[in-house]
Amino acid sequence: LDQSHIRNISIIAHIDHGKSTLSDRILELTKAVDPRLMREQYLDSMDIERERGITIKAQNASVEWRGYRINLIDTPGHVDFGYEVSRSLAACEGVILLVDASQGIEAQTLANCYLALEHDLEIVAALNKIDLPAAEPDLYASEIENVLGIDRTSILRISAKTGEGVAELLDAVVERVPQPAGDRNAPLQALIFDSLYDQYRGVVSSLRVVNGVIHSNDRVTFMQAQRTHEVEEIGARRPIMTPVTELGPGEVGYLIAGIKDVGEARSGETITHAYQPAATPLPGYEHPKPMVFCGLYPIDGDEYEELRDSLDKLMLNDASFTFEPETSAALGFGFRCGFLGLLHMEIVRERLEREFGLSLIATTPSVGYRVIDTKGELLEVANPSAMPAANLISEIAEPMLKVNIITPSTYIGTIMELAQSKRGELVKMDYLSPERVEINYRLPLAEIVIDFFDTLKSRTKGYASLDYESDGYQPASLTKLDILIAGEPVDAFSTIIHKDKAYDYGRRLVAKLRELIPRQSFDVPIQAAIGTKVIARETVKAYRKDVIAKCYGGDITRKRKLLEKQKEGKRRMKSVGRVEIPQEAFVSALSIG
Ligand code: GDP
Ligand code: MG
Fold first, then answer.
1. Which ligand is in closest contact with the Cα of 130?
2. What per-residue confidence (pLDDT) applies to 269?
């Protein structure tokens, strides 16, 4: 296909502004999907995505529009998945920036728009949802012009729901987004921007050809892995995988080369020809730094190797988490994993359980601290139980965030109060319009990870939006808090916390654990301690009699149900010393931050 007839674009927007719905309309309008097979959110192929109604993985689809080939990459909107957005953008020349015409610019609108500018991409802006009675396209067109410097007369007005204006939007893409650069006759350089593992076909990689041409029977070298493979199939996602004989400069497609070792086709990898290699690889991706850590342990210790294997495979599809082996006195062998945020952590855990059939326990999440010990040595501590004793520490510094909040001005007071309670420091405040304001805070990451986002949403009735980026480290008055169950410290519950909050947190955590830990045949004391000092204590009283005893004389089905229920509960329990702790206890411990 001639380069002048290719357009590579992403759709970027704040969450819920209509990216997936627009992708659906584009697939319909370009007749890429058989109408009988069309369903909502077509590109959100994972179960979790469809259930939660959010896009986690960027997906690509190749469609034809009036003689042009438009390669479309749908991107996730949640702040945890900014990394996916960034990788998608590296394969594009332009973006459609969607803004909800009843809401205007939100925090991720700004963040994603800045990313597009950083990548030097052409921005085609469109106001979506003009069918809504509450839509105010004129008002928000001026807002976009004032805040983002995009000429208001160039902004399209569409409804991704009804399809109004979508054809004009595609015309604008063809007209305004530049064709891909790249030299057909140069040695092959193709960028892998995503990979996943298919049980039957091995690794399937998404790639964008930058220079040269790749054919369906070439021998290709993966430049970083330094491995050579025979191409088994190349093709385009239209959006169904369709084999082709070649992909030239600017083209986006997939590659299958019988690769079984997931480590060989990581995203950011460059593919070239074995017989005429390119001199240098393309610039890869900078790996994102994990922000939140937790331990993942199999409930059944025998599943350890399986967990390792699954982490390897998942890593291929999501290069943004990290893992390394760790052991816990309470939980045995597992992995310390790093994530981009709490949602990311939840999703990875859920995918491991669903896609790989594992039962896991996640320990209390923690951020990564920088500790200077009394010998002046710097330690990175991502696991609270690895924190040195207080008398060996001269300073603990915690990671900070630059937080950007956009809100109706009526909520300024509410937000200030919330940020203050989270040890935030106001940096600046700008009015976008008389009614809406952008507020910048510097806040400790540890205070954000737990529930800041949800609290912000509920206190502003959903009107405030938030985005953040890392902003270095800052020394703080922090301490380690341990939990002892039946006298034994359970390292999985250890946490690092600000001294002013330790008592309150300790009290609430032991109270919560008392509710969650079922009665055993003996009294189980639960204690919170700082060093050797116990600051809170509760007891789970021993149960009196076998539960079944109650059922004698009762009917048999009730008894069976009870037994089954107990068995169900058992599967989700972890024995720690003599005490059985349900999986929920480990998870719920987070929600009390
Ligand atoms: P995404 O998070 O950006 O992918 O947003 P979605 O495509 O999932 O859309 C979020 C919600 O907005 C869904 O309930 C859509 O049905 C709705 N929506 C999207 N576009 C329109 C539109 O043009 N008009 C109306 N009324 N609703 C829309
Ligand atoms: Mg979506």
1. 1
2. 86
Report CA-CA distances (Å) from 208 to 164, 217, 266, 284, 559.
31, 17, 14, 13, 60
The C-alpha atoms of residue 48 and residue 268 are separated, in whole angstroms, by: 26
SS3 384: helix
Indicate the range of 180-184, 258-262, 292-296, 352-356 predicted with least confidence. 258-262
Q: Is the pLDDT of residue 434 over 90?
A: no
The pLDDT assigned to 250 comes to 94
Indicate whether 563 pLDDT > 70.
Answer: no
473: β partners: 399
Ligand nearest to the CA of 11: 1
Whether 530 has a binding-site annotation, put simply, is no
Mean pLDDT throughout 69-76?
A: 78
Protein residue whose Cα sits closest to atom 10 of ligand 1? 16
338 is in an annotated binding site: no
**Atom 25, ligand 1: which residue's CA is nearest?**
129
The whole-angstrom separation of Cα 371 and Cα 381 is: 7
Whether 57 has a pLDDT exceeding 70, the answer reads: no
- 401 membership: H or E segment, kind and range: strand 393-408
The CA-based angle 394-400-406, given to 5 degrees, is: 160
Residues 56 and 354: their CA atoms lie apart, in Å, by 15
Residue 74 CA: which ligand 1 atom is closest?
4
Length of the chain: 593
With a CB cutoff of 8 Å and minimum separation 6, the contacts of 567 are: none
Substitution site in 21, 24, 52 for ligand 1 pocket (most atoms within 8 Å of beta carbon): 21
For ligand 1, atom 11: residue with the closest CA: 16
Query: pTM of the full predicted structure?
Result: 0.73
CB within 8 A of 187, min separation 6: which ones?
A: 211, 212, 272, 273, 276, 277, 278, 279
User: Is the distance from CB of 98 to CB of 360 less than 8 angstroms?
Assistant: no
H-helix or E-strand containing 497? strand 495-498
Which residue bears the tokens 């507020």? Answer: 439
Residue 130 marked ligand-binding: yes
Closest ligand 1 atom to residue 23 Cα is 7
Ligand 1 nearest-atom number relative to CA 98 = 3
Give me the residue label for tokens 């008392």: 514
* d(CA 47, ligand 1 centre) in Å: 19
Q: Which pLDDT value is given to residue 411?
A: 94
The pair phi, psi for residue 197, each rounded to 5°, is -100, 120
30 labelled ligand-binding: no
pLDDT digit string, tens, across residues 378-397: 999 988 888 988 889 999 99
Which residue's CA is the nearest one to ligand 1's atom 18?
Answer: 18
> From the CA of 109, which ligand is nearest?
1
How many Cα atoms sit within 13 Å of 450 on the Cβ side?
17
Between β-strands 6-13 and 68-74, what pairing exists: parallel, antiparallel or unpaired?
parallel
Q: Position 65: which residue type?
A: W
Instruction: Report, as an integer, the average pLDDT of 88-115.
Output: 90
- Cα→Cα distances 485→234, 528, 541, 578, Å: 56, 9, 13, 10
CA 162 to centroid of ligand 1, rounded, Å: 11
Is 18 annotated among the ligand-binding residues?
A: yes
Question: Using CA atoms, how far apart are residues 39 and 150, in angstroms rounded to an integer?
Answer: 34
**Which value does ipTM take for this structure?**
0.99
